[in-house]
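Need Ribonuclease H's 3D structure for a figure. Predict it.
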Amino acid sequence: MATKYYVVWKGREPGIFTTWAQCQAQVDKFAGARFKSYPTLAEAEAAFGGKSNISASSSPAKGAKSAASKWTKKPKAAALSQQQIIEMAFDIKIFTDGACEPNPGEAGTGLALYHNNQLSELWYGLYQAMGTNNTAELNGLHQAFLIAQEKSAQGLSVAIYCDSMYSIQCITQWASGWEKKGWVRAGGEIKNLELIQQMYALYQQIKSKITIHHVNGHVGIEGNELADRMSIIAIESQETSLSLYRESSNIEEILASRRG
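Structure prediction for Ribonuclease H:
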């Protein structure tokens, strides 16, 4: 039986998996889960937008199963909880999210900004009639960088919380290697290249002044949930600019709206 590679864009842990059981563990009963199988690792990585989070085992003996069939996921760090985030000593906490319905399809971005653990601003927009979930997530992280640049210039400490491991890894890990190779990658096209180049240049300016954390989506982290609702409002309103949300200041009311 041929090996399949399962891409999970939206799930408990985004990534590329080599068995249906691993994929199912990420998407089963996960609202808004987005995933798809591919026949080759190259196609899976191209669809995911970067290298996989799986590593090859040692070469098999003659007649044994291929190394690909033995690949396993790298251990992951424990997920952050709402309480852990509250206890982090940052003046500004920015949560980002992106949504796409379907993927590719209508896309939008949302952000939630907290000052001293109090919600201060909600942002929505950057609508694309034909976008992708990855682009929407990158747009959110990009806007968080711009806000972080402004806030850090005011002497405030800033943390960014993003549920897209793809977006985080693009800027903090992969972009450095891509730049050294002339912005090319062995696996093929670098998707969202122009946006990634802009973000990487900005990241180089502010990386010593900010902290970036990955959070799991839809696990009850208030800022992440609010950013998610904003991304849906961006799609529904088709707002192309990034706009300050003024419709309601009632957090419970906003959380009760449709989620991505």
